């Protein structure tokens, strides 16, 4: 642990520190929020991630990256962990982990997939499933900063019960005319569903999103298949590739 | 962000995902640096390249022409950075 906290903007060598699990919350049948207390956390920017390291009794280490879902100034760090049945780390994190447990983290990491309220342009966020994590940090940061930059979240989930942060997103949008949330369900919906259905396609991106002439900053996070489709559609619609930032999650780590 | 069955090193991620690994070598966040692809000349942020990670390091490929622009390995207590696929690396000051 570090003796003093450094300001968020200061570059420093990353070191592994202990994080204590203070709360767990089941966001959906497959996704769990981990709330962490990290006394030496220097702060982060919305969209950054951290590396998490688990060590078993035999000393074997498994390392994974997770996006940070909590706002930059939140008291606790929040991560979203999706259970992958054949994964190495996620079955432990989603079933065996208990409040009071510790593991090692290092971060915050990455300055590429980052949005701060001082950046210009409308904000177009596109998420698939637990890929909403870094985008949620951006929306929470935007709300906390009182930003009036127009923002749209297009959020693909499998079914109604798989939608993560549904109530918080509704609350944020109800309190803010500059924020629009568009949900789409890919795994079937009931007759009273008023949102979109099916995978995110070119028409949905054109209808829900900002026009390229508005030069939105676009952040896309989710499974690789969603990222590749969405990034291709966005360029065909006329968005500049340099305005489109992507973050694939799984199935591999680095 | 990621989880994987052990040994599956196939699908690419965004270069951004390698920021933690690269921090073991660089004192600054290299994923926001740009480089020029040595084959097609595209200028791209390292965070936007395609990265193929494995247990020993990572390979970074140009998103336009798939050329290997950077290879970072960590084996036997030694880091190695191979940049022969890139023309120039630009760091913001």
**Which regions of chain B contain 5 or more consecutive residues with pLDDT less than 50?**
4-9
Topology order of chain B in helix (H) and strand (E) letters:
EHEEEEEEE
Largest interface: pair, residues per side: A-B, 37 and 35 residues
> What oligomeric state do the depicted chains represent?
heterodimer
* Straight-line N-to-C gap of chain A: 25 Å
Side by side, the strands of the main sheet of chain B go 1-4-5-6-7
Q: How would you state the average pLDDT of chain B, rounded?
A: 87
**Approximate shape of chain B:** globular
Number of strands of chain A: 12
Strand content of chain A: 25-35%
Sheet-strand content of chain B, in percent, reads 35-45%
Q: Give the C-alpha Rg of chain B.
A: 13 Å
- The global form of chain A is globular
Q: Residue ranges of chain A: pLDDT <50 for 5 or more in a row?
A: 1-10
Summarize the structure.
Chain A is an alpha/beta fold. Chain A contains five helices and twelve strands.
Description:
The complex is a heterodimer of chains A (254) and B (93). Helix content of chain A is 19%, strand content 31%. By secondary structure, chain A is α/β, with parallel strands linked by helices. Chain B has 93 residues and is mostly beta strands. Chain B has 1 helix and 8 strands, in the order E-H-E-E-E-E-E-E-E. Chain B starts with 12 loop residues before the first strand and ends with a strand. Chains A and B meet through strand 3, strand 4, strand 6 and strand 12 of A and strand 1, helix 1 and strand 4 of B.
């Amino acid at each position: 642990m570090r003796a003093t906290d450094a300001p968020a903007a200061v570059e420093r060598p990353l070191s592994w520190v202990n994080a204590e699990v203070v709360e767990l919350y089941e966001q959906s049948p497959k996704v769990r929020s981990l709330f962490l207390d990290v006394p030496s956390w220097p702060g982060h920017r919305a969209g950054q991630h951290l590396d998490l390291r688990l060590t078993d009794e035999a000393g074997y280490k498994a390392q994974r990256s997770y996006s940070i879902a909590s706002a930059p100034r939140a008291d606790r760090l929040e991560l979203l962990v999706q259970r992958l049945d054949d994964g190495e780390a996620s079955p432990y994190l989603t079933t065996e982990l208990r409040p009071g447990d510790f593991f090692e983290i290092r971060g915050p990491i990455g300055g590429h997939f980052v949005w701060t309220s001082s950046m210009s342009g409308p904000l177009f966020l596109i998420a698939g499933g637990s890929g909403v994590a870094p985008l949620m940090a951006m929306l929470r940061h935007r709300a906390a900063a009182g930003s009036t930059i127009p923002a749209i979240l297009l959020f693909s989930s499998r079914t109604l019960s798989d939608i993560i942060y549904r109530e918080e997103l509704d609350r944020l949008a109800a309190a803010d005319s500059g924020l629009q949330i568009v949900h789409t369900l890919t795994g079937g919906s009931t007759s009273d569903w008023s949102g979109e259905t099916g995978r995110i396609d070119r028409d949905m991106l054109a209808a829900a999103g900002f026009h390229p002439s508005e030069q939105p900053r676009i952040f896309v996070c989710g499974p690789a298949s969603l990222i590749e489709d969405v990034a291709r559609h966005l360029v065909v619609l006329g968005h500049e590739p340099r305005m489109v930032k992507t973050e694939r999650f799984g199935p591999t780590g680095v | 962000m990621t989880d994987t069955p052990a040994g599956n090193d196939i699908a690419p991620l965004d270069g951004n995902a390698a920021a933690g690994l690269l921090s073991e070598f660089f004192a600054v966040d290299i994923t926001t640096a740009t480089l020029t692809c040595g084959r097609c000349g595209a200028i791209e942020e390292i965070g936007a390249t395609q990265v193929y990670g494995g247990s020993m390091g990572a390979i970074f490929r140009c998103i336009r022409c798939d050329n290997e622009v950077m290879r970072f390995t960590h084996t036997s207590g030694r880091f190695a950075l191979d940049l022969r696929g890139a023309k120039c690396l630009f760091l913001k000051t």
